[in-house]
Every structure is written in structure tokens, then in C-alpha cells.
Design brief:
The chain is of the alpha/beta class. It has two domains: 42-80, no CATH class; 87-229, SPOUT methyltransferase, trefoil knot domain (Alpha/beta knot, 3-Layer(aba) Sandwich), CATH 3.40.1280.10. Helix content is 25%, strand content 13%. The protein is built from six helices and seven strands, in the order ααβαββαβββαβα. Helix 3 (99-109) links the parallel strand 1 (87-93) and strand 2 (115-119). Helix 3 (99-109) packs parallel to helix 6 (214-229). The longest helix has 16 residues, at 214-229.
Amino acid sequence: MTSPAPDPAEPATTAEPATPAEPAAPAEPTLPVGVGPWPGGPEAWPDDPRYDPELLANGDARNVVDSYRYWTMDAIVADLDTRRHAFHVAIENWQHDMNIGSIVRSANAFLATEVHIIGKRRWNRRGAMVTDRYQHVRHHETVEDFVRWADAASLPVIAIDNVEGSKPLPAADLPERCVLLFGQEGPGLSPEALAAASATVQIEQYGSTRSMNASAAAAVVMYEWCRRWA
């Protein structure tokens, strides 16, 4: 299996150590909630460039809301771009964490401006369920590269980790324009990432486990941002 072609908009990077083979990104999932061909045949098709003739002819079984049925992927992304929320999501990727795909899926659900992958360029897309096609994703080679980008964009970095000194989420400040930074399952955020954050936030827990699943934590914090600002 060949590796994905590098992003032409980004400089070439040095080769990473070999990682276990990753299955190809899955096709758009076929779900039982789709719709069939547009009724009435081609003569009844909408005269609108947002609509995809192939979907109009064959039906649309993609995992999209009804208002986007039969639209091309580019048209959907363009429409999302007109109303994305002001927060970004960043995820460290040093160990090929399988949670990353689920975090990307949640970022799409909560309409984040952009997702930032810090570390390894390749990440496990299976949990994203193809939502990364509708979500802007940017890669940063190192934490330092990411911090330079955030500083240039005047975006405070809010680290999410249950470390000493972190503030409980209900009492924490979540600026309208910010980057929510998440670590990996197990080790959490790296020392470099914690040092780069302007604030650290934790989700209060009440059971016996020391930490909660990384993708679940990301969804909780994104929802809280939306509760305050969306």
C-alpha cells in the first residue's frame, strides 16, 4: 500500500519511522437513512450548481443532514465555511492514537473552524467516518510550529488535561476565539504542549478512573464551548 501524497501547500518533511500498515480511508459510509434518486427523473432536477448529477440520478446515502442531500462535497464545505464557529481544535499525534478520528468527527459536528494535527502527518482516519472531507485539517510538524501559527493568528491555546493546577471546566474561561488542545489516550498532553498553553482546563470526574477517554473529553469541551458561544 502506498503512503498518501504530501500536501503540496506544505514543505517536504523528513521520513518518519515506519508505523504499522494503516487501512485505506473508508469510503463514504452507506447508511439506511439515505434517499433514493430525485423523483421525476432528469427533467425534474433542480437547476442549481450545488447539486451533484450522480447523486440526483442514483440517490444519496451519505451521512449528511437532510438540508445537504444531493449536494456536492465542495458545495457542502463552502456552505459550512460561511458559518463555522470561532474555535479551533488541536490534537497531538505522536503514537498514532485511534481517538484522533473520533475527535475530528466531533469537530465537524460542532463546526470547528479547523483541526490541527501536531506531530506525525499520518493519523488514523477510521474513526472520522469520512467527516474529514468536510473539515479543514492542518498539519504541524512540532509543538513549536503549532505555537508559532497560533501566535500569528492571535489565538490563545487552551490545554485540556487533568493535571495539577488545571481549572474545572464550568469555572474555566473558554474564549470565543481560541484553540482547544487535546493530548493522546494515556500520556495526555506533552510537557511542551502544556507549557505553550495560556490556560489548562480539566473535566471534573466522579468515579474511580483517573481519566476519561480522549475523544469523549474532546466532545464534552467542544459542546461546552458551543453552549457558551454558539
